[in-house]
Amino acid sequence: MNESIERDHIDTEKMDPEFVDAIVAAGADRIRTCIQCGTCSSVCPSGRRTAFRTRELMRKAVLGLKDDVLSSPDLWLCSTCLTCLERCPRQIKTTDAIIILRNMAVKEGYMLPQHKKTSKILLETGHAVPIDDKNREKRKELGLGEIPPTVHADEKALEDVKKIMKKTGFKKLIEGEEAGSEK
Q1: How far, CA to CA in Å, does 74 sit from each of 6, 140, 152?
Q2: 33-48 burial code (b ≥16 CB/10 A, e <16)
Q3: Nearest CA to 72 among 40, 108, 41, 42?
Q4: How many helices (H) and strands (E) does the chain have?
């Protein structure tokens, strides 16, 4: 997907002028002030080790290339470290914009398989990384109880977490169930 954004290569049929309005309405109010200086990309730790180019993602969002942005695996490469915001001469909350775009992507059905798998584990156990046998043994070695005092040890708490995930619509996003309905 790392195609150039040169004028000759933009398919104007793909442009959705309401896309940037939706991003702004969701809280990335300064995204339109981006001057494409490249500071965000040059300071990005993820960009040093991956194909992630913050500037390119922001430009495509402003141009309304909704499908290109939301379907891009690059959207998930941001580590949300906020370095781009700290260095942006326009103080654009780039990380907030990326989180907004990720939320939009999930609502549109775009989610990396690894994230979907982790989300399903979260729905099932209340933890993104559940306690396995290796971690139980390590906890015993350290003089801790095998199970931490979290939803792992409290069935009622796990039920509450599951209710929250259902009411907030998280369960629907991951499994396709109707949000807000009670068990």
Answers
A1: 19, 40, 33
A2: ebeeeebbbebbebbe
A3: 108
A4: 11, 0
The pTM for the full model equals: 0.75
SS3 category, 166: helix
Tens digits of residue pLDDT in 151-168: 888 899 999 999 999 999
Where are the alpha helices (H) located in 51-154, listed in sequence order?
A: 54-63, 66-70, 83-87, 94-107, 113-125, 133-141
Q: How many CB atoms lie within 10 A of CB 30?
A: 15
Phi and psi for 123 in degrees, rounded to 5? -60, -40
pLDDT of residue 87: 95
Measure the CA angle with vertex 81, ends 79 and 86; round to 5°: 140
**Residues in the chain, how many?**
183
Q: CA torsion 155→158→159→161, rounded to 10°?
A: 160
Give domain limits for the chain: 7-107, 113-175
CATH of 7-107, one of 3.10.530, 1.20.120, 1.10.1060, 3.30.70: 1.10.1060
